[in-house]
Amino acid sequence: MSAPAVVRRPAQPVAPKTASPRRLQPVTAPATRRKPKLAYALVAFAGALLIGGVQIALSLAITQDSFTLAGLSSQQRELDLQASALQEELLGLSSPQELATDAAALGMVVAGSPSYLRLSDGAVFGTGAGADWTSTVDPNGAGAVSNALITPPPAAEEAAADGDADAPTSGQDLPPAITDGLPSPTTH
After folding, report:
1. End-to-end alpha-carbon separation of the chain, Å?
2. Domain boundaries, the chain
């Protein structure tokens, strides 16, 4: 058994590719540059000015708002202090010492002993007599209890008596001025 014979063909040579010839030419004159358009430059400059102006306006608006807010905060603080002072004054005027003093000024007197009325049968227990024109309790006497809410501070009274123009005449107590540092107690 014989194998069929394979016939080989000889390889054909491949021709090399030729590159296209380059076209080099000498430069005869430089290319002319186009002039920039004046309109583009003006638009860019106007845009930059507009952006800067808007930033300045926003900065001024924010600064003005902060000053307004600081003023309103200060005003709110003053109103809170006034409300607190008025509440304290109201507490002082409604205290038992002040009510007793006002009642004595109106001519009201305190009876010596109380009387009671029993509603079931109308019986009166106690003295059953009216009060004398002299009160058994003197709200301004030696046994009176002082109330810090109704007595003014002594410094304001002395300054008003001396006619000191620098003394505060309003009911507002201010802290002392700090000239030589913070106040501190003297120790030995």
Report:
1. 137
2. 40-107
> Cα–Cα distance between 139 and 18 in angstroms, integer?
131
Q: Which amino acid is at 29?
A: A
Q: What's the angle, vertex CA 175, arms to CA 173 and CA 164, rounded to 5? A: 60
Q: Please give the Cα distance from 46 to 52 (Å, whole number).
A: 10
Q: Are 61 and 100 in contact (CB under 8 A)?
A: no
d(CA 11, CA 6): 15
> How many whole angstroms separate alpha carbon 7 and alpha carbon 130?
159
H or E stretch including 46? Answer: helix 38-93
89 contacts 173 by C-beta, under 8 angstroms: no
Residue 148 · residue 97 · CB < 8 Å: no
Q: What is the pTM of this model?
A: 0.40
One-letter amino acid at 31 equals: A
The per-residue pLDDT for 80 is 94
Q: Which of 85, 80, 78 is nearest to 153 (CA)?
A: 85
The contacts of residue 132 (CB under 8 Å, 6+ apart) are 109, 112
Dihedral sign from CA coordinates of 127, 130, 131, 133: negative
For residues 120 and 168, what is the distance between their CA atoms, to the nearest angstrom? 61
DSSP state of 165: S
Per-residue model confidence as pLDDT tens digits over 83-108: 999 998 888 888 888 888 888 888 88
The rounded Cα 32 to chain-centroid distance in angstroms is 67
